[in-house]
Amino acid sequence: MAHALLSLIQKAKNEDEEAILFLIQKFSPKIMRSLQQTTYQEQEDLQQEIHLKIIEAVRKYDLEHIPDIWNFINPDDFSARPMSS
């Protein structure tokens, strides 16, 4: 799952419109559940804004520096992170 998502993000970063659309559709159910707390008009506006934020986040996402568990355990001490093999 994680590898497929990273592959999809890479395609989206390369302006693959199908990959971008798939990412938006993948997260749409969670987005819509969250938006149910707002009025219908706000839902449409917020949904469009969230879609734009997803596209922006994908474009900015750095696939070379993906955080691992050690970054969360010791965020200020990268020397504690073991070397990958």
TrEMBL record:
GO terms for molecular function: DNA-binding transcription factor activity. Pfam families: HTH_16. It comes from the Bacteria. SUPFAM superfamilies: Sigma2 domain of RNA polymerase sigma factors. InterPro entries: HTH_dom_conjug_TS-like, RNA_pol_sigma_r2. One of its GO terms (biological process) is DNA-templated transcription initiation. This is Sigma-O factor regulatory protein RsoA.
